[in-house]
Amino acid sequence: MSVQPAQSEVLLTPSEVATLFRVDPKTVTRWAKAGKLSSIRTLGGHRRYRESEVMELLGVPNQRDSRG
After folding, report:
1. Residue 59 DSSP class
2. What DSSP designation does 58 have?
3. Which residues does 10 contact at the CB level (< 8 Å), separation at least 6?
4. Model confidence over 3-59: pLDDT tens digits?
5. Distance CA 36, CA 7 (A)
6. Is 2 helix (H, G, I), strand (E, B) or coil?
7. Which of 7, 23, 56, 58 could form an SS bridge with 27, CB 3.0 to 4.6 Å?
8. In this structure, is the dihedral angle defined by the CA atoms of residues 31, 39, 42 and 52, taken in order, positive or negative?
9. DSSP 3-state assignment of 56?
């Protein structure tokens, strides 16, 4: 039996986040280490970032909530 989250969260790689912020991927990793951005570790030890949190930091309104 596997536990599935009620709502699937889109996760981004450090490279994808770096592209959005126009910085180097190592900078994104430093932000995570400093606590400026929360990260999730994969089973292989790689970092992934919640798209919703990244978009919030960028100042982009949540597209899933806007219905119009």
Report:
1. T
2. H
3. 50, 51, 52
4. 444 468 899 999 999 999 999 999 999 999 999 999 999 999 999 999 999 999 999
5. 24
6. coil
7. 23
8. negative
9. helix
**HSE-CB of 67 using CA atoms within 13 angstroms:** 1
Distance between CA atoms of residues 27 and 25, nearest Å: 5
What pLDDT sits at residue 27? 97
* Higher pLDDT pick, 20 / 66: 20
Q: What's the predicted TM-score (pTM) here?
A: 0.76
Distance CA 43, CA 50 (A): 16
* Six-digit token string for 20: 């959005």
pLDDT of residue 7: 65
Q: What is the DSSP letter of 65?
A: T
